[in-house]
Amino acid sequence: MASKTNPFTFLQQVRTEVAKVTWPTRRETVISTIMVFIMVAFAATFLFVADQAIGYGVGAIMSAGR
User: Fold this and answer.
1) Which of 18, 41, 52, 65 lies 20 to 30 Å from 2 when distance is taken between CA atoms?
2) Which residues cross the membrane (predicted)?
């Protein structure tokens, strides 16, 4: 079982660990954000087209029985 540390020691350890983090630059953050929006747009378009195609196919199958 882990030993308990006091809050002051914990905050010191957190500060030490946060100092080790390599933070992205503003440019890297902007580029990553733009890429996320582009991929979301592609995924939304693909899913919309797939949904329409499946709906058309199901509709064609259902109306074939009439």
Assistant:
1) 18
2) 30-50
Write the single-letter amino acid at 64.
Answer: A
What pTM, to 2 d.p., does this model score? Answer: 0.65
Domain ranges of the chain: 26-66
Contact 32, 24 (CB under 8 A): yes
HSE (CB half, 13 Å, CA atoms) of 34?
6
Q: Which residues contact 32 (CB under 8 A, 6 or more apart)?
A: 24
CA 49 from centroid of its chain's CA atoms? 21
How big is the chain, counted in residues?
66
Token pair listed for 26? 């503003």
What gap in Å lies between CA 49 and CA 55, rounded to an integer?
10
